[in-house]
């Protein structure tokens, strides 16, 4: 399998594409009143790191929560740093929230998610002396005062697809997204390719429901918040015979997990498992750990932490950070409860495939569109 990688503004055809204190209200011209939270009681004299969430919220068990953890880790690593966030209730909050932090003289403004790409670029160009970082978006050409944190998740998505195919007893697996964005479909492309590689290596015919890399058509809930939609869609996949589910949908994935749990308790049903996305699900959604084969994750926490520390310690450079299997920025998480159930032969194959991807012997493809 071959792919031609090119760094683009939307992390697309390239595949190159990551203890709050008391809450106070912050001004917004958006649809709601976002909440601001600081990790310290006083910010006087401190370097201020500020984060704007996407609409999934600070506790989405996914990329917003991971980014906030990275912010907190930076504050823990350097006592001169204080961190806070503003929560976006809708996309109309993005620009007001970013501007509120610019007015507060934040040392770095971290924005989370592909959908904030344009808002962040506009603010950065209008305020060249303010440092920014953004998770899941990069620019061509680079914007000097933006640190773009992107992740080549077609690589670990490939491993997740291979694992799903190896563990499927029905020879049907499924994936779906929250919204049809390049940072979502790159995971789904990798998953699809991993299943095809398993079929090639084992002369099998495992089917992928919910996505077709060739046509770039598949299933989406339309947002990253509607857990009921995730549960309903997952139940449809299970009824169609899928026994491994991979939601790429943030908080919506909790609905998928509920459907998997319900299938587990239904009399006479096939055993259904799933993969979590972005973070280690056994940490971020521990109540469903018994259903997670593994998680297809990004090194969001480490990259956000590094961005904040670099700004605070005068080593900020801007440009692109690309998380990969090689540098730990794209990871297939431990098997946790399934560590004794995933056959040693499959674990060995996954370890070999990982090294083949790192060395370039296998180059997972992606057709996720550039924008």
In terms of topology, how is this protein built?
Elements: E1 23-25, E2 35-38, E3 47-52, H1 63-77, E4 81-86, H2 94-103, E5 108-112, H3 117-126, E6 131-135, E7 146-151, H4 154-167, E8 172-177, H5 182-202, E9 207-209, E10 211-212, E11 217-218, H6 227-239, E12 244-248, H7 252-265, E13 273-278, H8 281-284, E14 292-298, H9 300-312, E15 319-323, E16 330-332, H10 344-359
Largest sheet: 8 strands, mixed
Query: Mean of residue pLDDT?
Result: 88
- The CATH H-level homologous superfamily of the largest domain: Response regulator
Estimate nothing, just give the exact number of structural domains. 2
CATH topology grouping of the largest domain: Rossmann fold
The CATH class of the largest domain turns out to be Alpha Beta
Give unreliable regions as ranges.
Answer: 1-42
Strand percentage lies at: 15-25%
Q: Given the helix and strand composition, which structural class is it?
A: alpha/beta
Spatial strand sequence of the major β-sheet? 1-2-4-3-5-6-7-15
> Gap between N and C termini, in Å?
24 Å
Number of helical elements: 10
Q: What's the total count of β strands? A: 16
**Global morphology:** globular
Rg measurement, Å: 20 Å
What is the helix fraction of residues, given as a range? 25-40%
* CATH architecture label name of the largest domain: 3-Layer(aba) Sandwich
Tell me the series of helices and strands, N- to C-terminal: EEEHEHEHEEHEHEEEHEHEHEHEEH
